[in-house]
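Two entries, shown back to back:
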Amino acid sequence: MKAWLSATLVLACVLGAGEAMAQRTKITVYTAFENDELAPAKASIEKAVPEAEVVWVRDSTGVITARMLAEKDNPRADVVMGLAATSIIMFEKAGMLMEYKPKGIAELKPLFLDSKEPYTWTGQDAYLGVMCFNTVEAAKIGVKTPTSWHDLLNPALRGKIVMPHPASSGTGYLMVAGWLQSMGEEAGWKFMDGLHENIAAYLHSGSAPCVQAARGERVVGLALDTRGAAEKTRGAPIEVIVPKEGVGWELEAGAVLKTTKHPEIAKKIADWMTTKEANQVYAKLYAIVARPDVPSTPPNYPTNAESGMIKNDLTWMSDNRERILAEWSRRFDSKSAPKK
């Protein structure tokens, strides 16, 4: 009798779990999160919103942005997150996003909030473009540690620098937009003309340039800030440098699509984005997150990084993206690495 009762209880639990699983709603989330971030974020979301089953569609910033704009009249995503705010502002202007203020936004740093009404998106984390400088390889060619962007114009660095392609990498675009804003457009393009002479290739990743510098394949990799800190922590002979003129930066942000068929669940996922638990997920890969009560100081992260963030106009970056990328491609696309 006890054995029968135990078996019945086990079967009931299994059937109950199966029924709960069957009741979960698939929510399609477009993202440019790093691959390492996907599993922890999915687990955290589904714990906070148990009726949701997160289905990621993940690619680089440029690819996700182009895909969402191409699908404008027939959107397939319910939610977008972990994507450059400058891309999300484009979706906002195209009328693709739902007006919604997630619970908890009052607890976030003001920098991470949509500054215009109607409110449609919320920032999650910030990332910067820095120099990864291989001191061992630099010593071989007699190049000193740079302190300014203009130090990268040294003829000894010809063919020794790699950076992200701005059309496919959000990190690449924030660097280009940062130079144009901080130097002025005429001087910014002139600087990039000189830098191009020393570029070996424009890579389709925000992290890959630093990885190449860390391996000694290049002397300088212009790349994502946290990737630089991670490579140095692994023992690479690199310095992670925030030049004295300051660095460009961008936010990753999230929003709900106006056309989602599951608005209440999608809103709950947007609420999750502002939570301490969500910010702890972001903080595993990003040093600067939206919540001030979630500290994140990775080993070997440059102490002057946050203070080195330039005055940055995200709306300007979004409004001028197509123009800037067209001009950049006209000038520099000849050194773009093949896409895999």
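entry 2 starts here
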Amino acid sequence: MGTAVLILGRTGSGKSYAIKTMDPEKVGIFEVEKQHLPFKAKDFKVAKNATYQVIAAAFKEPGLKAYVIDDSQYLMVNELFDRAKETGYQKFTDIALHFRNLIHYINHDLPDDVIVYFLHHTETDSNTGEIKAKTVGKMLDNALTVEGCFDIVLLASVENKEHFFITQSDGYTTAKSPEGMFDDLKIPNDLNYVDTKIREYYGL
């Protein structure tokens, strides 16, 4: 089984920039909506305008041990807009199902040493104030708790121009990670560092 990792953060929080430290020969990047990474990335393998079909096809090609789905919430957003003229609630169930099925496939069908990083925007719950994964509405939230599909959820944050990842919740975020995987509550905004720590922890 593979490992799906969720990295949450607002626009500009450093989610995509963290890719820069990865080895271009060992990671595949799916750009769902954006056309460019926030750094010179000529050596990286980037699939633009990525869809579920593009991602699934790439997973069947052997070789790479790490993948990044950049702006993964747009898999849901784009499907919602493509089906905007449909009436009824079925489309919301379908959107939740398609996103959940992608995570399920990674967690259950990919090789043990493959890690897939979902870089995903956040939103603030209007009732609780909790920072959580952005979806496409309360109806989808009722069908799918995104963070519940992941064992590792990191939150990209910025303080005094310093970018970092938060590894555990303070009660107002959905960040979480297994005990002892990371040394500190705040770790470098460095995807290669994260990848190394996960592989060491699970013995991949």
